[in-house]
Amino acid sequence: MQKLVLLMDKLKIQLINKFVEVIQIVIAEVLQISYDPSTVSLKELLGFFYKTHDPTTLNSQGPDQGTQYRSAIFTHDDEDLKIAKQVTEEYQPKWGNAIVTKVEPIKNFYDAEDYHQLYLHNNPSGYECPTHFVRNI
C-alpha cells in the first residue's frame, strides 16, 4: 500500500509540474497599446518594437528568463495580424534571419497586478535591461 501512495504522490507532483509548465507557457508579460493611426501607423510602432529589444532570444529579455518573457506580438484583428507578420519578415534580414518573435491573434488580456502598474515610474531604478535600446537598423 505504501508503494501505491508513493507512486500516486509522484504522479501528483508530475501533474502539478505539467500544470505549472502550461501556466508558464500561456502567460506573457505584455503591454497593450492604444494609438491614433492618423498620427502613427502600426507598421511604425512595430518597427520601433524591433529596434528597441532583441527579438532573437527565446524565452528571455535581458536578465529575465522564462516563457513569460518571450518575444511576441498579439493582434486584435486580421489586418493587424497581416501587418505584424509583414513587418516581422521585413526585419528578419536585419536580425540575421534569427527573429523568434511569435505573431498571433490575442486570446485574452488581463491587467497586471497593481505592483506592476507604472512600475518604472514607481521604481525609477528598479529595472534595467541591457538589450533594450534603440538600434540603427
Give a quick summary of the entry.
The chain has 137 residues and is mainly alpha-helical. The protein is built from 4 helices and 4 strands, in the order ααβββαβα. The radius of gyration is 19 Å and the shape is globular.
What report would you give on this structure?
With 137 residues, the protein is mainly α. It has a domain at 30-122: 2-Layer Sandwich (Peptide Methionine Sulfoxide Reductase, Chain A). Helices cover 39% and strands 9% of the residues. It has four helices and four strands. It has helices spanning 2-26, 42-52, 78-91, 119-122, and strands spanning 60-61, 64-65, 72-75, 102-105. A hairpin with a 2-residue loop joins strand 1 (60-61) and strand 2. The longest helix is centred in the N-terminal third of the chain and has 25 residues, at 2-26. Mean pLDDT is 81; it is low at 1-13. Its EC number is 1.8.4.11. It comes from Wickerhamomyces ciferrii (strain ATCC 14091 / BCRC 22168 / CBS 111 / JCM 3599 / NBRC 0793 / NRRL Y-1031 F-60-10). It is an enzyme of class 1 (oxidoreductase). Belongs to the MsrA Met sulfoxide reductase family. Residues 27-129 form the Peptide methionine sulphoxide reductase MsrA domain.
Topology, pairings included?
Layout: H1 2-26, H2 42-52, E1 60-61, E2 64-65, E3 72-75, H3 78-91, E4 102-105, H4 119-122
Parallel strand pairs: 3-4
Antiparallel strand pairs: 1-2
Helix pairs in contact: 2-3
List keywords for this structure.
single chain; 137 residues; mainly alpha; two-stranded antiparallel ribbon; 4 strands
